[in-house]
Amino acid sequence: MGIGTASEAMTSEEIVALNRAHTFFSWSIQSAIDPIVVDHAEGVWLYTPEGKRILDFNSQLMSVNIGHGDRRVIDAITEQAAKLQFVQPAFATEIRGLLGQKLAELLPGDMDKVFFTLGGAEAIENAIKFARHYTGRYKVLARYRAYHGATMGAMTLTGDPRRWANEPGLVGVVRYPDTHRWGEAEPRPVEESLQGLEDVIRYEGPQTIAAVFLETIVGTNGILIPPDGYIQGVREICDRHGILMVADEVMAGFGRTGRWFAIDHWDTVPDLMTMAKGLTSSYLPLGAVAMRHKIAEAFEDKMFYGGLTYSSHPISLAASLATLRVYEEDGLIENAARMGERMREMHQRLAAEHPSVGATRNLGLFGIIDLVRSRDPWTPLTPFNGTSDEMKAIGKYFREHGLYTMIANNSVHTNPPLCITEDELAQGFEIIDAALDIADQAVTD
Ligand SMILES: Cc1ncc(COP(=O)(O)O)c(C=O)c1O
Questions:
Q1: Which of 148, 216, 263 to mutate to test the pocket of ligand 1 (most atoms within 8 A of CB)?
Q2: What is the whole-number distance in angstroms between the Cα of residue 162 and the centre of ligand 1?
């Protein structure tokens, strides 16, 4: 069969060749890519064209929260597609009203209105706009080690090395200190982190600052769970200076942590919240900016200068409403909390058995294992923003043994779909357990 004809199923090799020939892969040196080929997926399992089964231990990009192949969402998509595919966003639709109403019910406090986007980065771009329009101020504070997306503004807000090659970015973005210094096992004391933010606000001039952005829990840069008191402290500082607090829940939201939103763990209501990923479980692209009532109200007689052709796309909205029903019908938020407890025990077991496990963290099914050459002095298995032979070998082991997960710096992520069973969780940890023997060889203390 010739490449490009669809008469017979293509092999993985042919698919990769065709993908590589004509499509560009993100975050890559093109000649170095070696993608996994997926033909179909069900629950927590991915299947290659040759029928090999791979356990999805990262919900793709921490986004397929309900699991793959859920008929209820697929049916909602096809029903909406058969009824109405698209109207431009100045029109009103039933599905738009119903999803808005449902989100208002789930959102914290008095957040009762959403602006729909296509994904996370666009939600961030529009949150910047809402904050600037609402406050009349232009500076935006963002935290080191956060990731907010790859469009211009979102990339500037990003506090990790992915922004370096994209600088200079947006004017008016100022960074404040992280809660966890890279290469250290414990977070900074809460007072030190909050003082760092307070100092930046003092030096920049609070009257010039529209918003403080933060990932409620830092995701790709290490599942950095803020110590108790931090989120409440940021809220208090923002209130004192009339600055908006923007929680980025693109990755941490929609049950990942065992609550609807990560910020619910600290009983705090941000002024704006960005979301995407779990909003549709990635079945279709959708993001949103949610806002408190006072912000929505301010735009009752004030122009909002922003819009997107695909804002409120009916088919994406239908996927989202059906996804939210699945979380509820199947008790997936509760399952994430329950399986999170099991994950903590499995993490602890690995830490007890493998000297290379320096630290483990999780909240619900948002989890990570940090690997070290030595616990004392603390020596990560990779340099900052780098890799090592051991991490590469661990990645290779996972691939050969049917496990997909994210490996970043010296960390192995553990973020499976929220529908995972205890048995499936144990299967994933068994493969990780075996792979960690590779890291143990590198331990020097
Ligand atoms: C916290 C956070 N914000 C924003 C984004 C950007 O979302 P998207 O890739 O949908 O633009 C991501 C993506 O990983 C994210 O994790």
A1: 148
A2: 13
Dig out the tokens for 270 from the structure: 């941000």
Residues 6 or more apart whose CB falls under 8 angstroms from that of 288 comprise: 103, 114, 115, 116, 117, 123, 274, 275, 276, 279
Task: Name residue 191's amino acid.
Answer: E
Q: What does residue 317 show for φ and ψ, rounded to 5 degrees?
A: -65, -40
Query: What are the pLDDT digits (tens) for 381-427?
Result: 999 999 999 999 999 999 999 999 999 999 999 999 999 999 999 99
Instruction: State both tokens at 398.
Output: 């996972």
Q: Is the pLDDT of residue 2 over 60?
A: no
Token pair listed for 363: 């909240």
Interval 89-103: pLDDT, tens:
999 999 999 999 999
The phi-psi region of residue 243 (left if phi > 0; otherwise alpha if psi is between -120 and 50; otherwise beta) is beta
Residue 168 is encoded by which pair of tokens? Answer: 């200079």
> What are 27's two structure tokens?
């975050």
As given in the structure block, the two tokens for residue 112 are: 């009762």
pLDDT for 9-41, tens place per residue? 999 999 999 999 999 999 999 999 999 999 999
Alpha-carbon distances of 83 from 89, 210, 350, 366, rounded to whole Å: 17, 42, 51, 37
Please give the distance, rounded to the nearest whole angstrom, from the Cα atom of residue 274 to the centre of ligand 1. 9
Tens of pLDDT, residue by residue over 223-262, are 999 999 999 999 999 999 999 999 999 999 999 999 999 9
Determine how β-strand 111-117 pairs with β-strand 411-414.
Answer: unpaired
Average pLDDT, the chain: 97
Ligand 1 atom 7, closest CA: 120
User: Nearest Cα to 113, choosing from 314, 294, 281?
Assistant: 294
Predicted confidence (pLDDT) per residue in 202-225, tens digit? 999 999 999 999 999 999 999 999
Please enumerate in sequence order all residues whose Cβ is within 8 A of that of 207, keeping only pairs 6 or more positions apart, or say none.
Answer: 137
Ligand 1 close to Cβ of residue 125 (< 6 A): no
Pocket test for ligand 1, best of 122, 152, 166, 251 (most atoms within 8 A of CB): 251
Cα–Cα dist 434/403, whole Å: 12
The whole-angstrom separation of Cα 368 and Cα 217 is 12
